[in-house]
């Protein structure tokens, strides 16, 4: 019988250039929108991003989790939390855009938000908000007490 040695993997987070956040602390949906709007402006397909925050809600980093089509983006909790765990995030702002310009969340958006909130509780990463960006407006799940 042959001996088998499973491969060993090293998982690492690679910092790329991006939006300069400085010492930005996200304390409300307006601050989240101001940070996120330039990243989503002009996109022709749905993008789902996460903003990883430390224990004092200062921005650690932003990761694009999924790029979808005009009407949907496939988002799996595993892919949402992987970069957050790697950046040692204590909290997260979820964000995605609606290329149609209408920031009203769909039933699927609401179901995903509940699922990610539950997953975050299990992992010790607090979901502070889910911001849906439309054309010059946004919808905040936190502002509407949906978290």
From TrEMBL:
Q: Which CDD domains match?
A: MPN_DUF2466 (cd08071)
Molecular function (GO) terms listed? metal ion binding; metallopeptidase activity
- What Pfam families does this protein map onto? RadC (PF04002)
**UniProt entry keywords in alphabetical sequence:** Hydrolase, Metal-binding, Metalloprotease, Protease, Zinc
- Its GO biological process terms? proteolysis
Which residue intervals define the domain MPN in the entry? 24-147
- Protein name stated in the entry: DNA repair protein RadC
């Amino acid at each position: 019988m042959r001996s088998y040695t499973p491969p060993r993997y090293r998982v690492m987070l690679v910092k790329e250039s991006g939006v300069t956040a400085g010492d930005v602390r996200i304390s409300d949906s307006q601050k989240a929108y101001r940070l996120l709007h330039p990243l989503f402006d002009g996109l022709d397909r749905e993008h789902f991003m996460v903003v990883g925050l430390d224990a004092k809600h200062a921005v650690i980093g932003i990761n694009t989790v999924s790029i979808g089509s005009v009407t949907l983006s496939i988002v799996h909790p595993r892919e949402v939390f992987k970069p957050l765990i790697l950046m040692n995030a204590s909290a997260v702002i979820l964000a995605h855009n609606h290329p149609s310009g209408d920031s009203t969340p769909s039933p699927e958006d609401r179901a995903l938000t509940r699922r990610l909130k539950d997953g975050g509780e299990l992992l010790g990463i607090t979901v502070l908000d889910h911001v849906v960006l439309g054309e010059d407006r946004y919808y905040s799940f936190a502002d509407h007490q949906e978290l």
